[in-house]
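call fold(seq) -> C-alpha cells
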Amino acid sequence: MDSIERLEKRLRKLKKRKARLEREYHRILEEKIRVERELQQTIAELSKARKVMSV
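ret:
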C-alpha cells in the first residue's frame, strides 16, 4: 500500500511539473514570435533608411 501512495504522489508531482513546463514553453514561444516580428520590422526599417540615405 505504501508503494502505491508513493507512486501516486510521484505521479501528481510529475503532472504538476509537466503543466508548469508546458505553460513556460508556450510563454517562451510567444516571446520568440514577438522578437522575430520585431526583428523583421527593424530589418525593414533599416533597409528603408539605407535607401533614403543613398539617394
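The helical segments are 2-54.
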